[in-house]
Amino acid sequence: MSGFHLIVEFVGAVALLLWGVRMVRTGMTRAFGAVLRRALTACSRNRFTAFGAGVFVTGLLQSSTATALLLSSFAGRGLVALPVALAVMLGANVGTAVTAQVFSFDVYWLASAAVAVGVFTFMAGSGDRVRHLGRIAIGLGLMLLSLQLLGAAIAPIQQSPVFLSVLGALHDQPILAFLIAAAVTWLVHSSLSMILLVMSLAAAGVIALPVALAMVLGANVGGAVGPYIDQAGGQPAARRVALGNLAMRFLSALAVLFVTPQLVPLLAMVEPSPARVIVNFHLVFNIAASIVGLPLIGVVSWACMRLLPDAPVAADPGLPRYLDPHALDTPGEALACAMRETLRLGDHIEVMLRQSIDVFERDDARMMKEVERADDAVDRLYEAIKLYLIGTSRAELSLEESSRAAEILTFVTNLEHVGDIIDKNLMELAAKKIKNRWAFSSEGMAELRAFHGLVLDNLRLAFNVFATRDLALARRLMAGKTALREAEHRAAESHFARLREGRPESIETSSVHMDVVRDLKRINGHLASVAYPILEAAGELADTRLRSGEENGVSDAIDRGKPAVP
Of 27, 332, 461, 542, which has fewest CB within 10 angstroms of its CB? Predict the structure, then answer.
């Protein structure tokens, strides 16, 4: 077999191993992500239960990197204290070492069975969780199959003079072997895959055991480098977890790196097999690092706080706060983040709407500029939420999750339209009123404020309907739309009565007055739309929303700014 074919087989086996680990992690996260998160939260009361939770969760996820990113997300949102998170990470490191122990035994014969069971489960499963369980079985089978392929690919490599000369250069260079393993582990984002690869190389006799142990240490450090770099743009609170884990792994590895030749005979006394020496060293190293690290967690936390102090709170209201990028693999949590950010965008809209009536009443040009700036922040938040939902849709969503994602996107789009109406229409009318020094009549201003109050009440009700999807609240929101239409008719009749009386202030502000009512009604229409999918699902939405001819005559007259003809 040519050298090119050997390299292709070797790289293909490694890629299959990485993909198998990813499938297991993704399937476990999507099937039991919420359960695992609750387990972490429940066990994070002290260091020892947190350590046990880390062992358990990482043993299931088969990735300490995934656990690190999950904990960083929790810490960034203030859901877990830094010392507790570091204790969980120590347990996570032991958990991935336990997983390596399982794969070191001769269970390769299960590969075909696991793939077959996984494929049939995935294809026949009707529920999302069943399909995710099938994905987990397929991933486990691919991992076992990849280890078989690695063994077959490595055997001819042992006879390659070039490969042997390269590895010979590492024979007395533990630091170089350590750095190479750390770099490769960081690139593939999987310390488990690297440990299994080193195990296969050592079992085939391709690399000497002291070099293999140095590479195991490098894999442990490289596995901690990935989460820290991934959090480079995150909040300091989120980055501290990855930094503390990296510091503890690096210092522990550094303490052992130069005594690996002396450790080989001791490990061989327990189990002489090179593969077992590798995985036993990996497990013993992480257990020892945890025994030493648990009492020092307070010191490490203090150092991380000093190295990464809290940054000043960002003054830019247009920056998202709750769109956690690490939740995208778990659609349920990602949609919850998007919903929370949408409600925050709604808070900005509520402030804009509340200030808009004050601009008209006080002719406050400064506040008008504040409303315009707030709309810029709303536009940026809308864009961030939209892109986040697009990222969420790349994962496999259930029908319910797809429907909820569509509802969130529709509502956030309607909120953005509301912001545009306030900024582009209402504030333009306010600027026109201020420029011409017009003044509403006291009755007209009172009517506008009362009409605005109804819209503001419906805004708050729309947020509750969006958050709870409660049918009774949806009915109230639709009833509020009817009440607003009636209030519009009353306001129009009162305004036309003042025009007939020849009130000068009513005549000069007539177009502005009617346009404000029209724009507030448009805003209410965008808000009320959040109730439609809820009422439609309950079968309470009428087939047509056309009104009677007499009502249409009144509405058309109002839209033209003229009294309705009896």
Answer: 542
